Every structure is written in C-alpha cells, then in structure tokens.
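Hypothesis: this fold can be encoded by more than one sequence.
Test: take the structure tokens below, design a sequence, compare later.
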C-alpha cells in the first residue's frame, strides 16, 4: 500500500468525566496516541485535526488523502455529522458512516422510529419536551428515562428507572433541564445486556455478541454512566457471550439489519437488551463507537474475534481507502 497522509479528526477530552460528563464522549490523549501509532504502523503519516470550529479552515490546508474520523462534535442533534459533512463538501474520503446515518442514530427517538418501521424489535417509547405532555394511552411501567441525543450513558443512573407517572415526570424534567434537550422514555427491558460489533464495507460482518454481566445484580440492572467510568469489580465483559448459538445468530442478524437500515458504513456497535423470555431488543446503534485499546466494547469484541487493535484500525481505514479507489467519498 502506498503511504498516505491520513487526517485523524477527534474531540479531545480535557474534563474528568467523573466530575463532569460534558466531554464524556470525547477521546483521551492516550486513545489519540494509540490511534496515531496504529495508523502510522501501516506506513502512513498522521495529521492530528482536533474538531474545533477552525477545522473548516485547517482541513483544506492539511493536504490529507483520507480522514479517519472519531469526532463527536459539540452541541446539537447534528453534531456527529459535522466532520463527515465537511469532508463531503471538500471531497475528502473518510471512515465511518455518512452525515445522514450519524444524525438519525444520535437522535434516539428518530432512530427508534426507523427501527420500528423496518420491523427491527426495539422497546416502546415516547418523547417528553417539557415533562407535562400526556402519557400514551395504555402506557405501562416500569420505564427508563434518558436524554434523547446523548451517548456514553450520559444522564443514566439507577434513578432513571421509574415506576409511576409522578417519578417519570420528575425525572424527565431533570433531564430536560440538565441537558437542554427532550427526554426519551422507553419501556424498561428487564433482562440481560449485550452488544454486537459490526465491521466492514460494502459487505459488513457482525462479530459475536458480548454480554455485559452485572456482578452486583439488583432488581433492575442499568448500564449506567458511573459503571462505564469505574467498572472494576462491578462488571464483567464476556465475549463471546454465553448464549445458545441460535440466540447469537439472531442478535447478529438484527445487528446487521439495524446497521443496514440506517445506511451505516465501516464500523458500528449495536446495543441490545433481552427480556425475561430471552427476546432481544435493539436499544440503540452507535456508528461512532469508542476505540480505546483494551477498554472500549468494540475493541474487546474484535479481540475476541481474533482482530487485534492494529488490525481493527487497519480494517476501518481500508474501507475508506476502498471508496477512495472507487472515486467515492
């Protein structure tokens, strides 16, 4: 492969997420360094491009052949789409999903409407913009309340699961006030937690499911924000998951269905909950999954499938390079 000039677009985490979750989705300096090393190991030169407002000025001058995109953006329901949209404007090939897929997957309610219309099982839901809207007729509890356009379990704690209308409205108002966005209310699925990695373009492959096992189980387990920051002794990540082959195949098929219906590319992670009968429901699709070595869910899933960190980064990059050779962005 001819050495190329690869732009790495990212948002750098400077605020400790255990104190403030404002930058929880951003990447640490160690993650950025690891990505640079992995890309450079293929003989490419790497240009670091933090996704600040002046990226629109810096990217055209950087002279890159392709962009490896990790940027989460800052503010608004279209924030994850900003860097890919800029790349398309400049005709620079980039890794990962396009702006449309990133927008509809970030907006949980919009994404769930698309999943539902496509026949992909996802929990019932509705939106609260003020906390005063009437509940849907026949709505049943328990429910779980989340900010509608956040990731990394931001805003999610054990208090997010509510059992009555008063608690639901109280929690919705808290989320709306804190995150300045609507709250999504989902039917709480009281089962096991799984996630499936999807990799490749134009023929994506679903990797074997990983189970997030709660070591201190409660009546209602929640994969909450604090657990993602400090999981030692509280969670176990089991990959491949200890489930029947038929259940694994079903989850992989549903993950590919969700990936395809959104038009995702190259890489994504699809999160599931199973109910008490073992039926899987897609909770959400993340087309910008974390890439932290030995830590991020997708990285652990890939390693269990025999795909090391360098190989994982190389495979994602190769998808964009394949489009570049075809004259596609």
């Amino acid at each position: 492969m001819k050495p190329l000039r690869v732009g790495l677009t990212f948002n750098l985490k400077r605020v400790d997420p255990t104190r403030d979750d404002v930058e929880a989705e951003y990447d640490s300096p160690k993650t950025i360094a690891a990505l640079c090393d992995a890309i450079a190991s293929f003989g490419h030169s790497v240009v670091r491009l933090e996704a600040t407002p002046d990226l629109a000025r810096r990217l055209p001058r950087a002279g890159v052949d392709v962009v490896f995109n990790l940027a989460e953006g800052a503010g608004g329901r279209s924030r994850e789409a900003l860097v890919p949209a800029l790349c398309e404007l400049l005709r620079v090939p980039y890794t990962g999903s396009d702006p449309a897929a990133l927008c509809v997957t970030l907006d949980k309610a919009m994404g769930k409407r698309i999943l539902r219309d496509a026949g992909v099982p996802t929990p019932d839901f509705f939106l609260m913009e003020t906390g005063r809207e009437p509940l849907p007729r026949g709505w049943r509890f328990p429910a779980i309340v989340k900010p509608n356009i956040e990731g990394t379990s931001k805003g999610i704690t054990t208090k997010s699961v509510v059992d009555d209308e008063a608690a639901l409205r109280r929690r919705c108002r808290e989320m709306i006030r804190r995150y300045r966005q609507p709250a999504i209310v989902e039917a709480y699925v009281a089962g096991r937690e799984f996630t499936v990695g999807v990799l490749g373009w134009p023929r994506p492959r679903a990797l074997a499911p990983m189970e997030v096992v709660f070591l201190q189980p409660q009546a209602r387990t929640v994969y909450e924000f604090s657990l993602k920051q400090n999981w030692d002794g509280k969670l176990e990540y089991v990959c491949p998951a200890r489930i029947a082959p038929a259940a694994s195949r079903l989850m992989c098929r549903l993950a590919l269905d969700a990936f395809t219906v959104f038009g995702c590319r190259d890489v994504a992670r699809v999160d599931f909950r199973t109910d008490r009968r073992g039926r899987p429901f897609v909770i959400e699709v993340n087309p910008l999954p974390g890439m932290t070595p030995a830590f991020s869910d997708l990285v652990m899933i890939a390693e269990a499938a025999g795909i090391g960190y360098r190989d994982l980064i190389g495979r994602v990059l190769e998808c964009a390079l394949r489009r570049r050779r075809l004259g596609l962005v």
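The CA atoms of residues 8 and 58 lie 12 Å apart. The first strand starts at residue 5 and ends at 10.
Hypothesis status: open.
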